[in-house]
Amino acid sequence: MAQKDGQGEYKCSILESAGPIYVDRQASMMISRFIWLQQKAPKARRIVCPKEIPNKPAHYGKEFHGCISREEADELVSEADGCYLVRESQRSPGSYTLTMRFGGVSKNFRLYYDGMHYVGEKRFQTIQDLVADGLIIMYIDMYAKDYVDTMMISPAVKAGEEKNLDTDETKEKEPLDQPDAMGKDQGDQKFNVGKRQSVKPSAYKKSHNFKMNTFRGPHWCDHCRNFLWGLIMQGVKCQDCGFNAHKQCSSVIPPNCQPDKKYIRRVFGVDLTTLVKLHNTKRPFVVEACVKEVESRGLDSEGIYRISGFADDIESLKNSFDKDGEIVDLSAYDDINIICGTLKQYFRMLPIPVITFELYNKFIDAAKISSKYEKVEALSKALLELPPSHYETLKYLLGHLYRVAKRKSENMMNEENLSIVFGPTLMRAPESDSLNVLTEMKCQRLVIESLISCQDVLFES
């Protein structure tokens, strides 16, 4: 299974199709054990019904035995581990149960069909595949449970590095979360706003974007370095960086995803933190490009951001950003409203808005405060809770909108007008109720207007 090479490492021969992977002797032995266990699992064996069953569901075959009792099903599958059949529930007509033998005991599972067969999260084309996969999972769980349970422990913790992990995490959080009271004279009072230290994009934390995945050929968990067992959907794969893991392991993996352009081939509709980490920028390059273009030739344009550009041209520019990235030539678009429309479209398509769902109500509550000084302090505290990429993006955009509003005598766009446009663009209610749309829009406008008006205080630099 594993052959020793000249350097004393072990090459897994079963990976010839994917290229050689070198592992130490202990890992090689564990990998071999998991593969051996998968091969040793009982084989699925269908118990064929000897008679025709009237009104049999079309998606079941000869394994369907009709409406029989649990005791009858147990008797039919008792011959050996791996035997299985499907029956209709006597208590709940129209519901179906999979009965299978494992470990000398009959096990019963509620069976579902939606074009694919399933009893849990995995979907299968056939009952045979479902049972075969289940037997592998149960067999490994029985004979390697203790080891499987330890796989969810972080490798760093296994090595006794808990203290180092805590120290690193504290160091990384302190610059972001420690507010520093500073004041700006306003008559006899001062604003107390938090000061946020800038961090490099590489330090932005991002969780993996895991989805269940079917791996072709042998694959290993990148967290615990053990074999991904099963026939299909053996584990999860990060859609942004390609990290593979057992589903059990995915729940304990820290937010250390490093997005890869091999997996992310667009700009619009991509999570904000994912995009800035991918391109190693403080804020999305599409935002910087559009803002710079508007400031170079559009600040005096009447109705800027309010007047819509042609939808076809906006879609064309959007596609150019998705295809060409940072090399898009915005000067080719004479109508500045196309640039503005594309920028607004970018924000509308974010899966998580700039003002995140979790902080939506905090910003709303802060903007409703009547005292200007208390309002600024509350908004400052809410801003400090934003993820770094969201904070930097909002800071950059609000500075731009503040400069647009200062030219309101030429462009007819004051803070209120801009907030009407950008309110629903920058924030969305976590649970939208169509009956409260007008109320939500009013609150969103109030938040953005407050942020634009006070941005020079909130983002002193």
Automatic annotation (TrEMBL):
Alphabetical list of PANTHER family matching this protein: CHIMERIN FAMILY MEMBER, RHO GTPASE ACTIVATING PROTEIN AT 5A, ISOFORM A
Stretches assigned to the Phorbol-ester/DAG-type domain: 207-257
Source species: Porites evermanni
Region (Disordered): 162-200
Pfam families from the UniProt entry: C1_1, RhoGAP, SH2
InterPro entries per the UniProt record, alphabetical: C1-like_sf, DAG/PE-bd, PKC_DAG/PE, Rho-type_GAP, Rho_GTPase_activation_prot, RhoGAP_dom, SH2, SH2_dom_sf
Keywords of the record: GTPase activation, Metal-binding, SH2 domain, Zinc
Residue ranges of domain SH2 in the record: 63-131
Record domain Rho-GAP: where: 270-459
Keyword set includes Metal-binding: yes
UniProt superkingdom: Eukaryota
Biased amino acid composition, Basic and acidic residues: 162-188
Protein name per its UniProtKB record: Chimaerin
